[in-house]
Structures are given as C-alpha cells and as structure tokens.
C-alpha cells in the first residue's frame, strides 16, 4: 500500500477537489466553439490551450507529488518537487485565459507573463523531482 506523508495527502486531496473546476473551463470552451460566446481565432486557440494545459499539468503534478514521496528531498527542494508542477497548473492556464480576455482581442495582453512564470515552476518542479529520484538511496 502506498503511504503518503500528511502534506502530500492533504495537497493531493485539495488538488483533486480543485480539479473539478477544470470542468467549468470545458463548459466555457464548448460555448465558445458552438458560437454562444464570440471569440476571435486567437482567443479560441488560447482558450483551448489553457484548458488542455490545466488538465495535463494537474495529472503530471499529482504524479510528481507521489514520486516525491520516493525521494530523500527535504525543505525547499521537497516543496518544489512536490508542488512546482501543480503551481504551473494554475499559472499557465491562467496566462492563456487571462491574456486572451477582451472583446475582439487578436494578441495576448500583459498577463501572458503568467505563462512564463508557470513554465519556470514547471521546469523547477520537474527538475527537482527528477534529480530527487536519481539521487535517492
């Protein structure tokens, strides 16, 4: 049986409950695709990308959370390994959705920076988890 530390168990529980909100993004996306919500081609692309990134990064983040339990990481590196990808699962979709908001928008606004901050968390989380696994006894 897989034994999780309390922080990993609590984090996973909250993430699974929060993942329910991804369905609201899917519902919004179906409204955009059906034409119930007007959107430019740019906005449609960014909305699709935001929704896809949310789902994939949540799954990858949960995998990293579980794999971190098999490492000997502590402190900040353990936190980054356990939650870095999950933080990116918030920031990157937010960057896609929020930078595309606005009637008739054809280019991202300044909130596109959230994509790049999220990418940094993604790289840090994957790197910490991967190294932690390779260095584990």
UniProtKB/TrEMBL annotation:
Domain of life: Bacteria
This protein's name: DUF423 domain-containing protein
Assigned keywords, A-Z: Membrane, Transmembrane, Transmembrane helix
Bilayer-spanning residue ranges: 12-33, 45-68, 80-101, 113-136
